Amino acid sequence: MINFNDAYSKVLEHTLDLGAGIVALEQSEGRILAEDILADRDFPPFDRATKDGIAINSKALKEGINSFKIEAIASAGMPQQKLSDIHNCIEIMTGAVVPKNADTVVMYEHLEIKNGHATLLKDAIAGQDVHPKGSDVVSGTVLLHKNTRIGPAEIGVLASVGKSGLKVKKLPKVCVISTGNELVEVSEIPLPHQIRKSNVLSLCAALQREGIVANPIHLKDDKSDIRKELSHILETYDTVLLSGGVSKGKFDFIPEVMADLKVGKVFHRVAQKPGKPFWFGVQPDLKTVVFSFPGNPVSTFANYHVYFLPWLYSSLGLEIRNEQVFLNGPVIAKPPLTRFVQVKTDNRKGSLWVNPVRENGSGDLTSLVHSDGFICLAPREEAYGVGELVNYIATK
Amino acid sequence: MINFNDAYSKVLEHTLDLGAGIVALEQSEGRILAEDILADRDFPPFDRATKDGIAINSKALKEGINSFKIEAIASAGMPQQKLSDIHNCIEIMTGAVVPKNADTVVMYEHLEIKNGHATLLKDAIAGQDVHPKGSDVVSGTVLLHKNTRIGPAEIGVLASVGKSGLKVKKLPKVCVISTGNELVEVSEIPLPHQIRKSNVLSLCAALQREGIVANPIHLKDDKSDIRKELSHILETYDTVLLSGGVSKGKFDFIPEVMADLKVGKVFHRVAQKPGKPFWFGVQPDLKTVVFSFPGNPVSTFANYHVYFLPWLYSSLGLEIRNEQVFLNGPVIAKPPLTRFVQVKTDNRKGSLWVNPVRENGSGDLTSLVHSDGFICLAPREEAYGVGELVNYIATK
Q1: Where is the MoaB/Mog domain (chains A, B) (predicted)?
Q2: Contact B96 A182 (CB under 8 A)
Q3: Which tens digits make up the pLDDT trace of A124-141?
């Protein structure tokens, strides 16, 4: 049995480099950039009016002029115009190019317009309400760095610089496997000794949130069937997530079959609760990474969030965030087991407090819906007390 | 001009009831339940072994017996067996039904098995390692309430109770409209006075995270075209998000066209920065709700998160979460404008601190990628100082 810190380190030693591919901008939400994104021009690309009103030359202001003949109208989308006389003005709309010979915008609210002349109702300051060319960024500046997760704001930037297609990290091909003869399909009415599959559906939904469309497969508890199927799966996928089949039961064939298929065991059994029988290995020739989780829902869910997600993020070049929260209630984590305790978070005047969620053993499916994460407690003799700062792993 | 609190209240007074529809379980991630979900049987549905080992009758323990003849093997997925003699045992695997006449499980780690007999190496406690039938929930219990957002944990529960199809809230049909003659497609090379569309792509990506596939449409600054197109759009969609065309410019036709199309103006212009020219209205016959945002990226993004998302969540029956954070740096919010300031959050030993993100006016597209939310500051003479608790709206 290995301790939690060693198990976690070993998982992160076996990340995969999955390479990069091109996706359309509209398909890129949630993906991870595999290239730096540069400004293809200055932003803004021209001296841009930020108000509706008139564009004037500040020299006229210095000369004490406060009433301007309107020469023309400049609206957004029109090529740059030219103020022919600096004592005149051009009406200008937000987003329009400030005309040549003009450098200052005065908004309608500060103007009276009559008989083709605009008169200032308030002093204007040279350069006001102009967003100068290149003042946000100059052409060639890196706007988004490689390894950035693409969200709505990033999509705005990518659109602005014309990236209708872009290089993103490839996602792993993932196979999610359930084992156990007691499992039947969701649409079936189970016999008294049977239960419906649920872990694989939970895992597939969790993977979907990472943009991964996983393939769910069920294996019956039959050693030769499992061997045959797994052999094919190891060749086809980058990563295999199994749920069940790694305990000490007579029908828990997974560790044995993995050995047969030359999947190198990195570790089996971690000093943790829940999820102690976790088996982790790598097929060195195929480079397939295998996460074999114990079959009960809370164990599978905890191990997925504690080990698989950091492995995935690390493989994609993302930073792994560590969050700390205040514990609101005593919790015991006696040696030698590290504990993952389901909690519900509460933002209490700017500080994050977590309440442990009552659970009825690791087979308790319903407790997961009442929690939004796990806290990770290192083993120690003394109980963890109210107000202690502990590590938190979000699941919602 | 209306103040922020009134504008926010008025938006929430115009939520829509969009009804419900059936989706397949595999498609339900992120959707909102439109029905209560009940346990269709007890959970666990039988007395379930939680360890691999032997099942015994605790009466034998009381009689001082500590070595048990093995009668049979019970594995997960097998119908319930019966211990014929309470002085014997049945080998049992995790997930299996505890046999009739047995009530206690002893794991292999606490046993020595030799010549068809299992001998206890440690005292056993009556009932140990059995997860009793109905101890999590009894049949008929509400497991998930209507208006719950469905995530991976909820999908596990839904699968367990056989909901291969389920009733969820319908999402609004949303049309996202850009206006402005200066805009060109992302794939085009803009002329010096042009810029590429970006707001609509940002908005569509943000809506995609809510499960909404929005239709992006561009309207040129031509009043009769806008009127014609909008008339059709108002009939086709539940909600229209516009970006641009609501300022005081000569080509900002939206408010006028809305009036022509009998879209009742609820308000136009809010005492806030950014996003002051925000126009909000409802077509009472069609019940179409129109959010018309000012055209610059930061204004659109702020208004979407400040107004549209709470409106959407409220329409779907979700609770709107209020988060508070500590401000790390002085910020000015002079009357009469409420300010939305872009910030980056930092979990500092369990407390959430936000740093204002330097921005260069509301036309600054790149600042959004450096922030993870907005803080909302009510107007007041005195500057907001370091350590003040302020309201936070997440955008990432």
Answers
A1: 175-314
A2: yes
A3: 999 999 999 998 889 999
